Amino acid sequence: MRFVSALCFTMTLFVSGVAQADVAAGKSTYAARGCIGCHGAGGVSTVTTNPSLKGRGGDFIRKNLTDFRSGARPSPVMNAMAAGLKDADIENLADYIDSLK
Ligand code: HEC
Predict the structure, then answer these.
(1) Which of 8-12, 40-44, 71-75, 92-96 has the lowest mean pLDDT?
(2) Contact in structure between 26 and 92 (CB atoms under 8 Å)
(3) Is the distance from the beta carbon of residue 39 to the nearest atom of ligand 1 less than 6 Å?
(4) With contact defined as beta carbons under 8 Å apart, do 27 and 96 qualify?
(5) How far is it, in rounded angstroms, from Cα 20 to Cα 46?
(6) Mean pLDDT in residue range 82-93
(7) Which protein residue's CA is at the shortest distance from atom 43 of ligand 1?
(8) Is the minimum distance from the CB of 37 to ligand 1 under 6 angstroms?
């Protein structure tokens, strides 16, 4: 039993370590891809035409970036922005924005 809880603890550390790496990668992608210029630092937009992303949750971000990329959600701005995103970029961006609560 003690072994099992030690194993669980180790796995929790491992999983949260990976999640933190994704958050950090997502944060740099958010800056490098220029998302920050329109959606604001920390996902809080100061321009009314650009929606704030903070508080929208990772699932929302993942779904909408995927839909912008495929064109399933048409947007003159975001279709071009999402076109170059890899699956890993979308995952990292979703994890980063999900962390902004
Ligand atoms: C040039 C400004 C601009 C840039 C750069 C930009 N966006 Fe957007 N984004 C918008 C606008 C405007 C909308 C609203 C689009 C629409 O509904 O047509 C939007 C919508 C979104 C939405 C959906 C929000 C909602 O409320 O439905 C997400 C998610 C998003 N952007 C993520 C990103 C990410 C991630 C990046 C960086 C890869 C990025 N955006 C770069 C302007 C921008």
Answers:
(1) 8-12
(2) yes
(3) yes
(4) yes
(5) 27
(6) 97
(7) 38
(8) yes
Largest separation between any pair of C-alpha atoms in the chain: 57
Tokens 């321009």 label which residue? 47
Query: What mean pLDDT is reported for the chain?
Result: 90
Mutate to test the pocket of ligand 1, among 54, 68, 78, 86 (most ligand atoms within 8 A of CB): 78
Contacts of 36 (CB under 8 A, 6+ apart): 30
What is the distance between the alpha carbons of residues 30 and 43, in angstroms, rounded to a whole number?
9
Give the model's confidence band at 56: pLDDT under 50 very low, under 70 low, under 90 confident, else very high.
Answer: very high
17 has a pLDDT exceeding 60: yes
